[in-house]
Amino acid sequence: MLVVTHVPDIQPDNADQGKELVLAQDRILKLQSSVLSLQARNQELEAGLQQLSEDAEALKSANEIANATITGQQQEIDGLKAQIVNLTPAPDAATNEPADTKTTKTTK
To answer: In terms of C-beta density within 10 A (0-12 exposed, 13-18 middle, 19 or more buried), how is residue 101 classed?
Structure first.
């Protein structure tokens, strides 16, 4: 019995397969390195975001305190204005000047 097999003219070279394997492994290592770098960067960004959130809360609190201070000062100003109005004599209707500041005009 005769068995005939076809053998291709060029057989794959193990050296080429070895090169491809080395290149594939190199790409895998680079990808793993990139993943680690991205994970580290992600952690940095999350820490920065947490800090920004804390800063925002501190600013909100400071803003509320400032608004309360402004409101208190505005009330004090309004109270002082009312005192000034009460202490200022009523203006003279004819001259529209306060009664105690009326001056005598002299003519030549």
So the answer is: exposed
Q: Is 84 helix (H, G, I), strand (E, B) or coil?
A: helix
Backbone angles phi, psi at 91, to 5 degrees: -70, 150
Q: What is the spatial distance between Cα 81 and Cα 76, in angstroms, rounded to a whole number?
A: 9
Cβ–Cβ under 8 Å, residues 92 and 98: yes
The per-residue pLDDT string of the chain (108 residues; one tens digit each, 9 = 90 and over) reads 666 666 566 655 677 888 999 999 999 999 999 999 999 999 999 999 999 999 999 999 999 999 999 999 999 999 999 999 999 887 776 666 665 555 555 555
